[in-house]
Amino acid sequence: MRHHKVPRAMQRRVQRWYDYSWSRGRIQGGGDINTALGLLPDKLRTELALHVNLLTLKKVSIFKECQPEFLHDLVLKMKAYIFTPGDLICRKGEVAREMFIIADGILEVI
User: Which residue intervals define the domain Cyclic nucleotide-binding in the entry (predicted)?
Assistant: First the structure.
């Protein structure tokens, strides 16, 4: 959350929720970031997702003129992925079933 410059108060709210849920046996460790975020209460997950992803989405030219409500809905559908050098994301000419927005790094079409 620090990497995404999430406000300290929001970081504390997320940490308190996880600590409380963990202590009550409602959640267990492990899993990926998308699973962990999916466990948050809707309101907190929405606030966190908007803070982390909305600015990135607004930088994409096809979304610049979109209504804020549409962008909010889209942000809530986004998932985080981390790829390493050499990972194949998709093949040229392949039918697209999802859209990737590269927040950091370089992609090469081969």
Answer: 62-110
Domain count across the chain: 1
Examine residue 52 and state whether it is found in any structural domain, yes or no: yes
Domain-located, residue 84:
no
pTM, rounded to two decimals: 0.58
How many angstroms separate the Cα of 74 from the Cα of each of 17, 38, 69, 70?
25, 15, 9, 6
Give me the tens of pLDDT residue by residue for the chain, a chain 110 residues long. 777 788 888 888 888 887 877 777 766 665 555 566 777 888 888 888 888 888 888 889 999 889 989 998 898 888 888 889 889 888 888 898 888 888 888 888 87
